[in-house]
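Re: the 80-residue chain
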Amino acid sequence: GLLAQGVPLLVLANKQDVPAALAVPEVERRLGLQELGAGTPRCVQGCSARDGLGLHQGLRSLYDMILKRRRLQRLGRSKR
């Protein structure tokens, strides 16, 4: 696969300020993100680069996913 298992993925669905933009669920479907499985944390964040809406939330989600993955990795090492 393209992504290593468990590596957090952030997709920024830009152009949400444009009426014809694809909705976030449609972006997820077209990218086939459900095929990544539960072991790959992911966030698809609608955003608009024009005014910055959604960018902070997306980056915050990525940061939270990274912290969670680090905690899980530490727990895995401490159980050995």
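The chain has a mean pLDDT of 91.
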